[in-house]
């Protein structure tokens, strides 16, 4: 379902004005952020790109508003909050 909405919005960006589509883009970002979706996955023949996930990421930057974030002692202006408790996989 999410994939279908992303693919539709990719071909017609006007659809992003509809919450159904912009919410799908934001849901993909959340899934990537939580590690449940990946933009690319390793395979025997190298990395395979999940194009629809990549497309959602690109559309996210078009719909997300810039804002001021306060992460003491710093303040910055961006579209996404910095991570605080990120685990390095390795």
Helix content range of the residues, please?
40-55%
What percent of residues are in strands? 15-25%
The count of helical stretches stands at 3
Helix/strand-derived class? alpha+beta
Query: Strands across the major sheet, in which order?
Result: 1-2
Largest sheet, strands/sense/barrel: 2 strands, antiparallel
Taken from the alpha-carbon principal axes, the silhouette is flat
Runs in which pLDDT lies below 50 for 5 or more consecutive residues are none
Q: How many distinct beta strands?
A: 4
User: Which whole number gives the mean pLDDT?
Assistant: 90
The separation of the N and C termini measures 32 Å
N-to-C order of helices and strands: HHEEHEE
Radius of gyration: 15 Å
Secondary structure elements and pairings:
Elements: H1 2-11, H2 19-33, E1 40-43, E2 46-49, H3 51-63, E3 67-71, E4 74-78
Antiparallel strand pairs: 1-2, 3-4
Helix pairs in contact: 1-2, 1-3, 2-3
